[in-house]
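Hi R.,

Here's the chain you asked about this morning:
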Amino acid sequence: MANFILKEPLIFEDGIGFDINPNTQILAKNSGIEVIFSIDQDISTSSNVEFADITLTDKLTLDNDTFIIRKNVITGSFTHTGNLITSVDNTFVHNGDMTIGNILTAEKIVSEISQSATFFESGSTLFGDTLDDIHQRTGSLSISGSSISINYGSVTEISNDTTLGDSGGTSIVTENAVKTYLDDGAGVFQTYQRKSFAHTGSFVSVSTASFAVATASAPSGYTATSEDDFMFFINGAIAEYDALTIQQSGSYFYLKVDNDSIGYDLKTSDEIVAFGKFDNQYYLDFDGLTNEVTTNFSGSSSTPLNKTYSFWYKSTETARNYSVFGYGGNKNGTFTPNFSSGRPLIWNGNNWYVYWEDTSAQDDGEWHHWMLYNDVATITDSKLYVDGVLQTVNAYVTSGTVSNLNNQADPLTIGSYRNDSTNAGAHFEGSIREFGVFSGDKTSNASLYYNSGVPYNLSNESNLQGYWKMNEGSGTTVTDLSGEGNHGTVDGATWDYVV
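And here is the predicted structure, written out as tokens:
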């Protein structure tokens, strides 16, 4: 490796009558050369030779004046592959192009130019401008521009919009945004996905067959149900659509048949089977012994809060029916049908409860909608609706004190007043579905939620804290469709569906 040493070198140059060999050689500390001075006259050891003038060079010129080094200035082009050493107290100024073939190491590099380009070993002059140009970095990356291009696609933001309302074609969504969006839409999407079942109809007349089910009529984001969403079989043969008309009437789905098109009148011995987008209503059966649904939903901590409960149930149990729901004890916000003398009861603590009058809806074996507002502290403001009708209070018991009310810190259990599958005395016997919990008083919606006997979808209602439709049809998990994530676990209860 050559050494380029520039530390004020000493240079001798020929003059008139004065010869130097070698001429104009740089005399550096490590040059190690001999220089001979001679003049064009004879001299003796006693002669006195005088030089009229000594001129010091003010520049070092290389390569035919294209590269010139003066004091503190370098001009021209120079390619250097060896070592360059300058004195530490001098400024190195280079005004031309400089190419460094090896590694440049400097304590500090200051550039006053407006733009620079870095050549990576891959040959790229930009950061990741080709697919084979791989770069690694640590730490955070801050981009102040309006977009970033990845594989020629533009990205303008990382979005946490949980509604996905912008529909941005250049947005990357977060995990939280996707999860929240799917959870919020699960009530519609999951229900719709399950709506494909076969049903056998019964005849209303010679041209009409009735199916006691609801169809998947126009859930949010989808088109209305039509004949094209079903296949109809009459005595095992597929019926042509031009001979059929469908109609939804409340909870009944009617198929009207054009007798002239099929060539005969229907008889009760004929069989019509429909396969398509029926909305089967699944539910859970509880045996009154060990069955329950446990959740992570907590009513409150030390001070119970006022809540409204909306649910559907049917039962034939005429004795005390512990309990539709509760929070860990038979006096912890527990609702029990037929508690005493056929009266339903909500119980919040010793001598702090409400009895309502006996109602046949408790045990007639039919589906009924119940809506209960439990005003914990002001027990006389509690209300009970059955099928949209306000029930008459039989007795308020308020001889206890508010300060002694039982808390509801244990998680909500449906089908029992506590999570205890071995205690038959704590459990409900019957069937339950569409169980929802709201903060505050929502009984003004009692008629709306009863919905003329067709369960109302609570998913998008305000103040909803928990909502278990129990419409999964299988498995041990019932999804909380409120978006709060308090999914329930089925312990022993069995699945059935409305036909």
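One quick note: The chain has three domains: 3-100, 197-279, 283-498.

Cheers,
M.
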